[in-house]
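Module 6 notes. Inverse folding takes a fixed backbone as the condition and produces residue identities as the prediction. Think of it as a translation problem where the source language is geometry and the target language is the twenty amino acids. Below is one complete input and output pair. Work through it position by position during the lab.
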C-alpha cells in the first residue's frame, strides 16, 4: 500500500506540534479525549435533530484502555465517526478541523461548545507514540477505514473492520530512552490521574477498567473453625470523570458547605474559605465561575515563590492550572475556577490567543469580589477582620501598584488601627469626625504601641480627635497617592501643620520663634547638616524634644528605601527637623548653658537630638559615643 506524504509545510507544522507547541507531554491524553468528546458532540446533535436515529444521550461514552505488553493506549468513542475521505481531510491535512465549521453552523442555543478548533491536538499523540492508528466508521456507513502513521514520514489509509460507528485511536507508546520515561503512560493509575486532572469535566463518561480488591469468604472453614478468607482482585469498568463540575450546577443543587469542601480538596486548604462567590454570566461573553476568598494566607504568599492564578477551563477541559491574568494583582489571593466556551485559545489550547475576553471576565469578577468583601466588612466584621489580618497588606500594595491607578477600587476596603481602639476604615473615620475637625490625622510608626506613645500625639488627642495608626511600610505611599478622602485631606501629625492653632495661638508661637531665635540658631550650628531646621514646637506639651521631617520623604520612607536590594535607595533621606519645647525645663537649661558654658550647651543639643532620634525610631550613628556623652553630664 502506497504511503501518502504530508506536504512540506505540513511537515514543518507537525514538527512544531510534536516538539515545540505543547509544554507537557502528558497533554496528549487531554487532546485525544477532547477530540473524542467533539465527535460525540456532533453525533449527539444529529440525534437531537433527528429522533429517528434512535440514539439516546445516555448511550454515548469514551473508553480508555491500556495494553502493557503491546505498549498501546486506545481511546475509543461512539461519536460521528469518519469516512476515508473525511480521514484524508481531517487527519491528512494538519491544522484542518471541521469542528470549527460545525460550531459556526449550529444554531444559537444548541449544544455547541466544541473546542477542537485547530485540528492539531490529535498530533500531540506523536509526542509519546512512535505509531498512531485510527480505526473509524462513520455513522450510517457500511465499512470502516484505517489511518496509520509513524510521524512526519507520511500516512496510509486502508479499509478495515469495526463493528459499530465511532473512532478508535490506538497509540503505540515509545520505548524509554535518553532520560525520557514514556512507560509511565502505560500505568492505568497514571492515566486515571491525567483524566481527573485535565478531562474530569468532559461532559461524556470516560470509562476505564479498574482493578479493585477485597477480602472475601471462601465458603470453607479453617482448622480453628473460623471461615477462611482470601484477597480477591476483580476488574470493573468504571466511569473515571465527574462529567458535571460543581461550578456548572445550579445554585439550588449545591450548598455552600459542598462548595467549601470542593475548595479544600481542590486547593489543598484545611480551613473553610471566608466566602464563596458564584457567577453564572450569559450574554455576549458567557462563563461560569466559582471563586473562594481564603481565611489565611499560605506560608509563601508574600514571597516570590507564591504562584497566583485561577484554574481556567474551556467547556470543561482544563486549559491552565494557574492563569494569573484573570484577576488584578491586588486580588491575587483569590482561588477558584473560570469556565467559558468563549475563550480564544492558541493552537495548543494551553494559552489564550488574545485577552479581550479575559479582560472582560476579569473586570466583572473583580467587581464581584469587591462587592463581597464590602458585604463582609459591613455585615460580618469579625470575619472580615480575620481576612484582613491575612490579606490587608496585599490590598495596600494594590493601592500603590501602577501609580495608584486602582486606588478608587480598593480604598474602601482598607482598615487601620485607631487611637481610640479597634480597626476603622476611612469611611468610619470620616463618619466619626467632630464638626470642628477638617483633616484626617494619621501617624506612621513601626507598631501601634509605639505610635500611641509618640510625643506628637499629645496635641491631637487633647483636642479629642482620632488618629489613624499606620504601621506598614507601604502606608505612607498609599496616603500620598490618595491625598484626601471625601474632601478631607490627610495630615501626618509628625510632619505637617495640624491646623489646630487659633489665630491668637499662631501669633503667640511666632513671637516665641523670634524670642528664641538665638537658641535655635545655636542648636542648628551645632547639628549642622544633620538637620534641615531647628524650631520651637507647636505640638509638644509634656516632652522636651521631637524629631520630625519636612518634604515628601518621611522616616518610614527612608527606612524602606534603605532596605531596597543593592542599596539603590541609600541616598533617599528624610530632611530632619528638630522641634524643641520652649516651656520645658531642658530648654531653659540649654538657654542658660549658652550664656555660661557653650561647650556644655553643645552637649545638651547633641543629647536632645539623640533622644529625639531614639523616640522617632531612628538608629544612632554612634550609640557608644552617645552613651558616653549622656554619662559625662553627671
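Target side of the pair, the amino acids:
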Amino acid at each position: 500500500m502506497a504511503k501518502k506524504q504530508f506536504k512540506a509545510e505540513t511537515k514543518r507544522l507537525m514538527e512544531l506540534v510534536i516538539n515545540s507547541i505543547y509544554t507537557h507531554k502528558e497533554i496528549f491524553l487531554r487532546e485525544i479525549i477532547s477530540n473524542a468528546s467533539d465527535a460525540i458532540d456532533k453525533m449527539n446533535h444529529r440525534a437531537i435533530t433527528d429522533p429517528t436515529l434512535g440514539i439516546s444521550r445516555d448511550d454515548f461514552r469514551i473508553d480508555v484502555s491500556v495494553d502493557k505488553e503491546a505498549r498501546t493506549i486506545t481511546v475509543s468513542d461512539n461519536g460521528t465517526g469518519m469516512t476515508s475521505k473525511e480521514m484524508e481531510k481531517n487527519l491528512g491535512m494538519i491544522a484542518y478541523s471541521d469542528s470549527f465549521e460545525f460550531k459556526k453552523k449550529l444554531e444559537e442555543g444548541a449544544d455547541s461548545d466544541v473546542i477542537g478548533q485547530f485540528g492539531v491536538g490529535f498530533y500531540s499523540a506523536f509526542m509519546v507514540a512512535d505509531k498512531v492508528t485510527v480505526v473509524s466508521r462513520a455513522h450510517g456507513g457500511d465499512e470502516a477505514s484505517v489511518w496509520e502513521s509513524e510521524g512526519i514520514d507520511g500516512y496510509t489509509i486502508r479499509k478495515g473492520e469495526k463493528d459499530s460507528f465511532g473512532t478508535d485511536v490506538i497509540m503505540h507508546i515509545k520505548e524509554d530512552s535518553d532520560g525520557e520515561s514514556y512507560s509511565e503512560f502505560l500505568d492505568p493509575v497514571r492515566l486515571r490521574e491525567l483524566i481527573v486532572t485535565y478531562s474530569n469535566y468532559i461532559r461524556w463518561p470516560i470509562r476505564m477498567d479498574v482493578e479493585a480488591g477485597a477480602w472475601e469468604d471462601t465458603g470453607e472453614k479453617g482448622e480453628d473453625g473460623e471461615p477462611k478468607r482470601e484477597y480477591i482482585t476483580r476488574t470493573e469498568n468504571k466511569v473515571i470523570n465527574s462529567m458535571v463540575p460543581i461550578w456548572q450546577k445550579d445554585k439550588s443543587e449545591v450548598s455552600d458547605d459542598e462548595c467549601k469542601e470542593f475548595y479544600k480538596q481542590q486547593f489543598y486548604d484545611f480551613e473553610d474559605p471566608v466566602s464563596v462567590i458564584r457567577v453564572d454570566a450569559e450574554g455576549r461573553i458567557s462563563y461560569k465561575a466559582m471563586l473562594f476568598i481564603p481565611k489565611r494566607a499560605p506560608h509563601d504568599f508574600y514571597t516570590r515563590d507564591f504562584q497566583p492564578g485561577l484554574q481556567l477551563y474551556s467547556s470543561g477541559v482544563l486549559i491552565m492550572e494557574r492563569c494569573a491574568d484573570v484577576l488584578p494583582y491586588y486580588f491575587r489571593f483569590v482561588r477558584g475556577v473560570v469556565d467559558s466556551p468563549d475563550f480564544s485559545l492558541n493552537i495548543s489550547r494551553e494559552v489564550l490567543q488574545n485577552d479581550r475576553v479575559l479582560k472582560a471576565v476579569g473586570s466583572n469578577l473583580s467587581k464581584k469580589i469587591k462587592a463581597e468583601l464590602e458585604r463582609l466588612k459591613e455585615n460580618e466584621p469579625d470575619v472580615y477582620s480575620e481576612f484582613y489580618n491575612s490579606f490587608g497588606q496585599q490590598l495596600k500594595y494594590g493601592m500603590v501598584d501602577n501609580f495608584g491607578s486602582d486606588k478608587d477600587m480598593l480604598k474602601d476596603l482598607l482598615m487601620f488601627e485607631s487611637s481610640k481602639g479597634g480597626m476603622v476604615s476611612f469611611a468610619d473615620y470620616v463618619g466619626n469626625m467632630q464638626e470642628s475637625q477638617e483633616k484626617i490625622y494619621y501617624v506612621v510608626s513601626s507598631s501601634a504601641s509605639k505610635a500611641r506613645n509618640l510625643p506628637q500625639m499629645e496635641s491631637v488627642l487633647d483636642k479629642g480627635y482620632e488618629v489613624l495608626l499606620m504601621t506598614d511600610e507601604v502606608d505612607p505611599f498609599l496616603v500620598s497617592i490618595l491625598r484626601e478622602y471625601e474632601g478631607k485631606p490627610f495630615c501626618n501629625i509628625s510632619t505637617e501643620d495640624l491646623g489646630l492653632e487659633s489665630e491668637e495661638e499662631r501669633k503667640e508661637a511666632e513671637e516665641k520663634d523670634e524670642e528664641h531665635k538665638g537658641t535655635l540658631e545655636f542648636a542648628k550650628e551645632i547639628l549642622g547638616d544633620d538637620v534641615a531646621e531647628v524650631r520651637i514646637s507647636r505640638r509638644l506639651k509634656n516632652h522636651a524634644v521631637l524629631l520630625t521631617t519636612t518634604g515628601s520623604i518621611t522616616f518610614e520612607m527612608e527606612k524602606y528605601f534603605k532596605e531596597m536590594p543593592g542599596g539603590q535607595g541609600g541616598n533617599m533621606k528624610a530632611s530632619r527637623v528638630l522641634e524643641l519645647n520652649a516651656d520645658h525645663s531642658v530648654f531653659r537649661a540649654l538657654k542658660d548653658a549658652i550664656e555660661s558654658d557653650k561647650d556644655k550647651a553643645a552637649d545638651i543639643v547633641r543629647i536632645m537630638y539623640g533622644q529625639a532620634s531614639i523616640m522617632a525610631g531612628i538608629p544612632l550613628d554612634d550609640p557608644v559615643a552617645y552613651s558616653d556623652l549622656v554619662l559625662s553630664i553627671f
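Reference fact for the lab report: Residues 95-103, 105-118 have pLDDT under 50 and may be disordered.
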